[in-house]
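B., you asked whether I could sanity-check this one before it goes into the benchmark set. Here's the sequence:
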Amino acid sequence: MEKEKPPIFGMIQRSGEVVIRMLANVQQVTIEPILRATIAIGTVVYTDEYDIYSRLTQWGFEHQTVNHGNKEYARDDDGDGFCEVHVNTMEGFWSLLRPWLRPHRGISQERLPNYLAFFQFVHNTRKRGKALQQSLVERLLT
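And here's what the prediction gave me:
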């Protein structure tokens, strides 16, 4: 029987950086410290309706959701024609990560965090080719 894969949790700032982590489980007690260490209190956090996020306002964040269960993927709350409530930025990131990991089948759970950290670094650096190579060298030397 195949061992269950640990969940991967991710957050992304629109037009900003991504943070991805492997978790032991998907529970509020597991994500709360990551959120508090990564996101400033008072920040608006956009999620789907998954109940793991139900305490975000209690933790000091503003919280807006889209209801994927009702086929809602984006919402324009203020009527300006711009759908500000969505999780498409993170969904887009997942759509890049999954195919990148696919050829690396057989990654051990012990090494998967290294692959995730590398993909996170590449995304956040926003450089490719020799410019990415230079950023990697600089990072390794610091």
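One thing to flag: The chain is about 35% helix and 15% strand. Otherwise nothing jumped out at me.
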